[in-house]
Amino acid sequence: MTEGIRARGPRSSSVNSVPLILDIEDFKGDFSFDALFGNLVNDLLPSFLDEEADSGDGHGNIAGVDGLTNGHLRGQSAPLSSAPFFPEVDGLLSLFKDACKELVDLRKQVDGRLNTLKKEVSTQDSKHRKTLTEIEKVVDGLFESFARLDGRISSVGQTAAKIGDHLQSADAQRETASQTIDLIKYLMEFNGSPGDLMELSALFSDDSRVAEAASIAQKLRSFAEEDIGRQGASAAAGNATPGRGLEVAVANLQDYCNELENRLLSRFDAASQRRDLSTMSECAKILSQFNRGTSAMQHYVATRPMFIDVEVMNSDIRLVLGDHGSQPSPSNVARGLSALFKEITDTVRKEAATITAVFPTPNEVMAILVQRVLEQRVTGILDKILAKPSLMSPPPVQEGGLLLYLRMLAVAYERTQELAKDLRAVGCGDLDVEDLTESLFSSHKDEYPEHERASLKQLYQAKMEELRAESQQVSESSGTIGRSKGASISSSLQQISVTVVTDFVRWNEEAITRCTLFSSQPATLAANVKAIFTCLLDQVSVYITEGLERARDSLSEAAALRERFVLGRRVAAAAASAAEAAAAAGESSFKSFMVAVQRCGSSVAIVQQYFANSISRLLLPVDGAHAASCEEMSTALSKAEAAAYKGLQQCIETVMAEVDRLLSSEQKSTDYRSPDDGIASDHRPTNACIRVVAYLSRVLESAFTALEGLNKQAFLTELGNRLEKLLLTHWQKFTFNPSGGLRLKRDLNEYVGFVKSFGAPSVDEKFELLGIIANVFIVAPDSLPTLFEGSPSIRKDAQRFIQLREDYKSAKLATKLSSLWPSLS
Q1: What is the distance between the alpha carbons of residues 652 and 598, in angstroms, rounded to a whole number?
Q2: Over the stretch 106-142, which tens digit does the pLDDT of each residue have?
Q3: Would I find Hydrolase among this entry's keywords (predicted)?
Q4: I need a surface site. Which of 55, 169, 400, 495 has the fewest CB within 10 A?
Q5: Nearest residue to 426 (alpha-carbon basis) of 357, 342, 340
């Protein structure tokens, strides 16, 4: 409603002249109370509307009641008069009362109509429910009818299926019966005269129907053989019935199949010559009915040029081994095998394309082809390059020795493994090409550890012979020389060489590489590695031990020369040159032994480093293998350690002997008891001291370089202790006056300064005590008792030195000291 609710009928100024008439239709749709109210009062409030219109546009209030604010009109002010302020109020009240009555009547009308509609709806709902119930009954009946219809359709379908199965079975039986009749007819033809194939049906001689003839012949053959088998079983059970069997048919069928197979193979060969792949494929499919086509597969593989052409085999040998009569090297063989195996792979790849296009089962043909390649072509070339040498009489080293065979074996094995991987990538069916490749080397791998150890032994022996030959050659070229000089030259020529030990390690490392290549299982690898490493330990142990023993022999020769000099001096009191020669031999042998010890240590370090870097990781996977090898290494090197220890003892004896000689020959009695004692003393060391310190500095320089760590400390400590004892013994041969005591103190300062370079605290302490004891020669006799008050431990040695004083008897020092130190008297 766009215009709201309008009162029905004419209106007059009198409020009660005409009743209000309201239409119920006015309340339908978009009902607005504001519109209803406005339509009711608009006729009674004309002056109000006029005043509001005069107040101007845009005030937005339309209803008359909106013009009042708190009971007053908005707009212009009302004139003051005595008339009623809102005279239309009575009319409005009457209007509102009549409107309320009308609304009540309308509500009653609406309520009545609603009740009527409720009754009608209830009646219609009952009818609708009744209709739905009837419809449901009808639908249930329809479902039952459909179910019965579906059951009948299913039954009819099953019956039709059974009928179809029976018809199919009957047709199959008919077909089988027809084929059986034909087969029986053909079988009777083959069961005629033995060897008579002339009276057979045209089917068996028609080249266009070869496939059908082959299929029928195979069926007949299977049936006849089964029949003969059943008759044999019946005869064994005692139920044999006399009658002619199918032996003739079997024999004739065998002959026919052989003839047909040969004919197909001939056709296959002819097509192969022409590269007629379609004909080859047709023949291969037919031949697959004969023993699953094995004969065709094998025939195809056997007729490949690389298996029947002698020139191919000769070309392989030339490619790998080079010209006839030349000694092949492993590197050349490796290159030749790589080229040959690449050619073989390319050939097999080409054949694979043909096989895939021709044969119905190409994987089986590829397996036969690859197996034939490995067993014939590869084995042929391996036999040429891998002639297994005898361990009883191995080839000489000049011709390569056992090492050449082992290197050839490693090269051939690596290249053949690569070939196997390439052939696997090309395709070889179900053939285990890796296992087949391993079998080609089984005889070589079974005896490989023995050959490897024998090769290492052969190399070691050859190296030792080479060193001995070099030593002998240099000795002969040196001419006639003195005995000591000759011993020195021989010792230097046979000195331990780190280069030789490095060669041992290099041989062993190469052997370990081959061992890793040939040993796939961790346990086998660990056992072989341990055995090969043991060879290295034995070689190094023997070599360095013999080197140390040779160096010890030089020390022994020098000692023997000194003994001869001593004996000669006692008899003849001469031979100064012999003494110098003995000293030179001793010094030379000392230095030679120190060089041997140094090289021995370097050699052992090389072996230990090699074990840590290369051997250890191969032994760790097997329990106990690593510990066992460490124990073997310790045992093997203990012999060298024992020889080194004995040699170092001899070195100390050599040094001490020369020091003793120098002291005995250079020390004068006047060095410590100068006749001119009152004159200013000589503050220089004695000549003997200078010679001894110079000798020790010169000879021990090699010891400082050769020895390290605890070995160096132990050697120098022992040497220092021996030097201290020797000096004590030597000085007890002389008598000292005060100036001689000062000279002795100067010698001691030289010795102390020298031994400090040893880095041995115990030796430094002993020499410091010697310096304190030497004071007994300097102080006055009355000061001797107080000299050792703080060092009671050296009083005994001090008493022996006091006895060497020049005034020992004249000053009656023995009596004085016995009263002061009664425990020493």
Answers
A1: 16
A2: 888 888 889 999 999 999 999 998 998 889 888 988 8
A3: no
A4: 169
A5: 342
